Amino acid sequence: MNLKNARVLVIDDESDLLFAVKMLLKTEVKEVVTEKNPENLLSLLSRHSFDVIFLDMNFKSALNTGNEGFYWLQKIREKDQEVAVIMITAYGDVELAVRALKDGATDFILKPWRNEKLIEALANACEKKSQKGKASTAKQSTSQTLNSLDMLGQSDVMQEVFYKIEKIAPTEANVLILGENGTGKELVARALHNRSYRATKPFISVDVAALSENLFESEMFGSKRGAFTDAKEDRTGRFVAANGGTLFLDEIGNISLAMQAKLLTVLQNRQVIPLGSNTPVPVDIRLVSATNAPLYEMAAKNQFRKDLIYRINTVEIKLPSLRERGDDVLLLARHFANHYAEKNRKPAPEFEEATLKKLKQHKWPGNIRELQHAVERAIILSEGNVLRPQDFTFAGFEENLYQEPQPVIEMPEGSLALSEIERNTIIRVIDKNKGNISKAAKELGITRAALYRRLSKHDI
């Protein structure tokens, strides 16, 4: 939400502080209400609607434990689940901050503060509230877009993906995302996180293929000072950094068997042991993994652990290539064109019909990433606001990356020998792909519908 439209309530027993905050925020937000006595809080909430509440943690007690603040935080949450609450105290420490966040606070700041820090905390709270509101509204039609992460698609194959995301996201299931490079696997991971109950917690993305075996443990599990050469300070691993939230492991199919074993141990025990330490650290994460590697074929060749596949793959999402998505190519092209035209201060672009035809005919071996770069180049190099076919050029290596699958030859009816060959071929390919009809159809060079017709024809 826009900061200028925010209604803010500040509760603190220091009159000078209330006056200072009101003077600071009166030009930044729509309304500022101040209150010294927290006993009036529930009455205020009954009569007014607030977007953000600044709540002091200590009012009367000389112990300064923050218990008063926690008590009133609970009362606010009972009254209004949507309002963002920022806890304020002069006696803050890490334990209080963690407890406040676990009890439902949006943020935690210490006084005295710098004015810009308070405004920044307020702006962040408004943004989080806005995102939470979007997630809780009625489900939008997925024929246009899943969310604000540029996940656009009208094709049937993308509707299946959107449906799976909506069903899977609110659960705690570990998810494996499969798909070619450039199909948007990280966008799906972020969509799962943003629609989960962990949405306000960290989303940590790791390209595990980029980690050498020497760095894997310290990067993933953390390390203590002096654990190895150059370990000059304690290092927080990615598992601990993602605690309470989502850990996204990209390119998981490219890690060695040794690293797979270490990863499996952590996932089974739900705890990590930093290098140089003997003390386990419990972790609570939701795991989302992604790869373009053929994990099941690798497992059959003992190149990837089957038990790790079971651990990371409670639910599987297969992303289609761009060439399988029909007119989504044009939808995405227009989206990227508008984005890059605005970014480069150019007029809104238009596409010639010949340009649209060229874009649809290209095989897009680099998928959405290739399309995005192609559109950006075209916007930058084009003259005027009309994009012509010559504005889109494709590198030679891109043209050669994709090979058209050889279609299965239609067998004449009544030819028993040829029919048997076709039947045996279909059975062999389905077995090879572990019963995955989509993969089998792709390898055979036919659509899933065509494969289902043949399954029915041959009584398979």
TrEMBL record:
Molecular function per GO: ATP binding; sequence-specific DNA binding
Chain positions with 4-aspartylphosphate modification: 56
Record-linked PROSITE patterns: RESPONSE_REGULATORY, SIGMA54_INTERACT_2, SIGMA54_INTERACT_3, SIGMA54_INTERACT_4
Domain of life assignment: Bacteria
Keywords: ATP-binding, DNA-binding, Nucleotide-binding, Phosphoprotein, Transcription, Transcription regulation
Sigma-54 factor interaction domain location: 151-380
Domain Response regulatory: residue ranges: 7-126
InterPro entries assigned: AAA+_ATPase (IPR003593), AAA_lid_NorR (IPR058031), CheY-like_superfamily (IPR011006), Homeodomain-like_sf (IPR009057), HTH_Fis (IPR002197), P-loop_NTPase (IPR027417), Sig_transdc_resp-reg_receiver (IPR001789), Sigma_54_int (IPR002078)
Pfam families listed in its UniProt record: AAA_lid_14, HTH_8, Response_reg, Sigma54_activat
A GO biological-process term: phosphorelay signal transduction system
PANTHER family per UniProt: ALGINATE BIOSYNTHESIS TRANSCRIPTIONAL REGULATORY PROTEIN ALGB (PTHR32071:SF113), TRANSCRIPTIONAL REGULATORY PROTEIN (PTHR32071)
Record-given protein name: Sigma-54-dependent Fis family transcriptional regulator
Species of provenance: Adhaeribacter soli
